[in-house]
Amino acid sequence: MTAAGATPTKAGRREWFGLAVLALPTFVVAIDLFVLLLALPTLTKSLGAGSVQQLWVTDIYGFLLAGLLVTMGTVGDRIGRRKLLIIGGAAFAVLSVLCAYAPTIELLIVARALLGIAGATLMPSTLALIGGLFQDPKQQATAFGIWGGTFTLGAVFGPVLGGLLLAHFWWGSVFLIGAPLMLALVILGPRVLPEFKNPHPGKLDFTSVVFSLLALLPIIYGIKQLAKDGWQVLPIVSLVVGLVFGYLFVRRQKRLESPLLDLSLFTHKTIGTTLLNQLSYSTMGGGIMLLLMLYFQLVQGLSTVQAGLVLVPAMIAGAIGFQVAPKLAYKIRPAYVIAGGIFLAALTYVIFAVFPPHGSSTLLIVGFALISFFGSPTVALGTNLVVTSAPMEKMGSAGSLAQLSNEFGGTLGIAVLGTVATAVYRNTVALPAGLSAGNAASAHDSLAGAVTTAAKLPAGAAKSVLNAASDAFTSGLHAVATIGVILFVVMAVFVATRLRHVPPFGSVAPPQAPEAAPEAASAPSEAVVDVD
Hints:
By secondary structure, the chain is an all-alpha fold. It has helices at residues 13-47, 51-79, 81-100, 105-120, 122-133, 137-168, 178-192, 206-229, 233-255, 264-267, 269-299, 304-310, 312-331, 334-353, 361-389, 395-428, 437-445, 447-454, 459-498, and strands at residues 195-197, 528-530. Helices cover 77% and strands 1% of the residues.
C-alpha cells in the first residue's frame, strides 16, 4: 500500500512478468472447472462409475475448494503468499497427473478431493500477490483486469482444448493440460514473485478451521441438493448443521485475539459493499446460466458441450469488459463504472423477462453476452477494491472473500433461482388432456420430465406436451429475469451511493470524514516484503 500523499511506485518489467506467471494458475483453475464435465461420459464407461460415484467425482473438487478458501487465504497471509502458491502449484501438478492415470473411480475421487485442497491455495494467494506487486492504482486496475480476462479465457479455451484431447486421446488427457503450466509456476515463481506475509500472524486456530469447513461444506452441499432434488430431509438437515457451525465460527472469531477470519473486513465500507454486489451478480449469473443450459439442451436439443460452446460469446464479451473497465475507472469513479454496468445489465435482463416461448436462441446468446460485458466491472474493479482496500497483511483473506463470493453466489443462484423457476413452471404448465397419471406427473414436475415423457408419445401428443412445457419454462425464465432487473437496479443505486468516496484510479483521495473511519483499514501496514 502507498502512504497518503506519497507517489506510488511504478511497476517495471519484473512486476509485469510476475503477473504473467500469476496468470498461469488462474488459467489452469478456469480450465479445470470445465474439463471434467467433458470427460465424464468417457471416464464413467472406462472406470465403471455408478451414478453416486459420478456425483462425487464432479462435486468433491468444488466442495473442498470453496470450503477451504477462507482458511487458505489466512494461511497465505501467515506463512507467505508466494510460499503457499508454490506449494499449492506443485501439489496441483502432481495431483493432475494422478487424476489422469487413476486406475479406479475411487482413486480418482480421492485425487479430485486433494486437487480441490490444492486449488484453494491458488486464487487467494494470486489475488493478494497482484495487490502487493502493483502499488500504482492505474497499474493495479490494469493488472486485475488482466487477471479477470485470463480466467475468462481459460473458461473459453477449456472446452475447446478438452474436446480436442478427448477426440485423440484417453479421458485422462484433459487433466494433463494444467500440469506443465503449474510446473512453470513452480520454477519461475520464486524468481520473479516477491514474498509477502504478516510479521505478527498469531497462532493459527485449528478449531476455527474445522468450524469453517463444518459450516461451508454442509451449506454448499445442502444448496446443491435442494437445487437437484427439491425440499428433502437430508439437504435441509445439512443446511441447519452448516448454519449452526457458521454461528459458532463467527462467535469464535469475535473472541480470538488472532482470528482465522477478521470479521472487520465485512464492516469495512468499501469491502463490504463490493462483496455484497459481487455476491448479487454471481447469484444472478448462476441462476440464469442454469436456465440457459437447460433451454439449449432440452428445448434446442444441444449436447452439453454444444450448450457450453453457445455461451462462449458471453465469455469473450466478459474478457473484453475486463480490459475496458479499468480504463474507464482511470477517469470515472469506480462506483459509477460498476453501478453503470450493473444498471445496463438490469436493462438487458428485460430481454429475458419478455422472451417469447419460441423465440430465437440468438436473442438469449446476445443478451447473456451483454450482461457479461456490463457486469465485468463488478468482478474486475470489485476484486481490485476488495483486495487493495484491506491492510497488506490481510490481502490474502480479502482475496479469499472475493473468490468465495463468486463461488458461493453461483451455487446460491442455481439453488434459489432454480427453485423459483421450477415453482413457476409447476404452477403454470398446462398439459394436454389424455395423458396417463404417470406421464402427467413426470411432465408436470420439470422440463426434463416433459421431454422424457414426450419421447414416449405419438407425434401430435408429444408436440402438445413440449409446447406446454416450453411455455411454462419460459414463464420461469421471465420470473427469474424480473428478479434480476429489480435486484440489479437496487444494487446499482447501493454501489453508486456507498462507493462514491473512492476516487478514479490514480487520483488522490480527499480527506476522510469522521464517519468513514472504517476506511482506515487501508492504511499502510508493516507486512514483511521479500523481493528476493
